Amino acid sequence: MNANYVVEMKDIQKSFGSVHAVKNGQFTLRKGEIHSLIGENGAGKSTMMKLLYGMYPFDEGEVLINGKTYESINPKIAIEAGVGMVHQEFMLVDELTVLENIILGFEPKKGLTIDFDAARKMAQKYIDQYDMDVQLDKKISQISVGEAQRVEIIKILARGAEIIILDEPTAGLDPVGREEILGNIRAYRAAKNAAVLMVSHSMEDVARLTDRLLVMNGSRLAMDAAPGEVFEHVQELLDMGLSIPKVTQVFLRLRSLGVDVKNVYTIDQAVAELLRLKEGKGVC
Q: What is the mean pLDDT of residues 208-228?
């Protein structure tokens, strides 16, 4: 076990009948790191995360969480080990309130009854700490997709998660909701030095948020490096059926036209590069 890793997945194999979902799966996650997984549909990225959370049993291999080896995992074991997962399809009960959903299955008790005062205080602590716009007394059926996403995050934080898995956290959100969720993820990582693992199809999101990027292709690991290094392999990514950030596409086009620009993969990098050109060449 490398002391820097809070999660290691080694030689993971998983098949569903004759379909090999994960072949020789390898994965590491460091404390305080945001690590994203990308890949075409069917590449195995969501399966890898569900194996880590114990939703599926793996056929071969082992998982280490905070130095402890697990040859099998279920969600109860994962939660006890400090792992929480926010699924793309929300695991919320529409006719219960936000607060009731947050504590469902983990209700604080006062004697034989639920201590709703303690529950509200606990939930409000996370809302305030991470600046989450959540209304505790509304029913799930009355809130937006973005608010439901935040409820799911609070729910796993309330269970003590310090390693969180996010499956397509910005899917279905408008630009404002997307920015709010990405901001909540950054705030959580900064406050807790927590490890975050994100599965996403959005190249823009992973480029902006991620420290390390793992690419899966054909149920196998294809790349594992910083986003800048991964996005240098433009043709390989395109051959896998993936895209690259739109701003990267623009700058590659500029290079093809003879403009001396570096590769960029975020808007901030693009602005800095354009300013460099302006200062160096006197363009306006």
A: 89
Secondary structure of the chain: what % helix, strand, coil (to 5)?
40, 25, 35
b (16+ CB within 10 A) / e for 215-243: bbbebbbbbbeebbebbebbeebeebebb
pLDDT of residue 284: 42
Query: Is residue 33 over pLDDT 90?
Result: yes
Using CA of residue 119, residue 120, residue 125, residue 126, what is the dihedral sign? Answer: positive
CB atoms under 10 Å from CB of 271, counted, come to 12
Phi then psi for 61, rounded to 5 degrees? 105, -175
Q: How far apart are CA 284 and CA 265, in angstroms?
A: 23
pLDDT of residue 1: 52
58 exposed, middle or buried (CB, 10 Å; 0-12, 13-18, 19+)?
Answer: buried
Please enumerate in sequence order all residues whose Cβ is within 8 A of that of 18, keeping only pairs 6 or more positions apart, or say none. Answer: none
Other C-beta atoms closer than 10 Å to the C-beta of 175 total 8
Q: Residue 182: which residues within 8 A CB-CB, separation 6 or more?
A: 170, 205, 208, 209
Q: What is the pLDDT of residue 282?
A: 46
DSSP string covering 192-239: H--EEEEE-S-HHHHHHH-SEEEEEETTEEEEEE-HHHHTT-HHHHHH
In angstroms, the CA 44 to CA 90 distance is: 20
- The answer to whether 106 touches 158, Cβ cutoff 8 Å, is yes
